[in-house]
Amino acid sequence: MSRIALGIRYRGTAYQGWQSQPGGRTVQDHLEDALSRFAAQPIRTVCAGRTDTGVHAINQVVHLDAPVDREPASWVRGTNRYLPQDIAVQWCTPVPDGFHARNCATGRRYRYRLLESPVRPSLEAGLCGWVFVRLQGQAMREAASCLVGEHDFSAFRAAECQAVSPVKNLRELAITRHETMLGTLWHFDFEASAFLHHMVRNIMGCLVFVGQGRRPVSWMQEVLDSRSRQLAAPTFSPEGLFFIGPSYEPKWGIPAAVLSSGET
After folding, report:
1. What predicted TM-score, i.e. pTM, was given to this entire model?
2. In terms of CB atoms within 10 Å, which end of the chain has fewer, N or C?
């Protein structure tokens, strides 16, 4: 068998997250079914980062040991033939046997798209979070600054998180504002060595509290230091959360994520 890597792009609204479940309503279930039908043999995949129900992906990377010999372009076109319209293989590349989609990743990126508008999203429903109370960007940026670096993120960790350690290195948390026809669109860009379960959404809940003036800027540091999930804001909606993709050392030859005009 030869090992290959695939880049998967999907809208997660209709699915119960990435990881395979008995009901079969996950992205992994649909992908493995399509791959197996194309190869006429059972195929299992390993992903770079699991996503929750309703979360989208721009460049989810998976690897698999191919039981049949096909050209990379054939894996893309042949697999997409059997996938629903909201999931698509973007690229395929052969990789060494030592490549592992999850273990070889040196970092992961997420973006949360948040619409600030008096009216809820319609065409953008499912592709952005929504608030109708005006947000203060400078307050959110000041609050976010204390989270950058290596910390114990227990206060932003879901109870069911299976990570061995709550200590993660959040390398970047950038907040930008964009005026659109829909209203004010905020981008929250996260980059870290790895993330805890619900970590981004739990941080988002706290940032929105600060941005709306419901908590002072200093409260974020208090929440972080407490290491207690009870002190933080409720988990924010999965709508608007995109897994941009993992990063790897250049030697693996893995394509990086490319954002379309609608995602920038």
Report:
1. 0.94
2. C
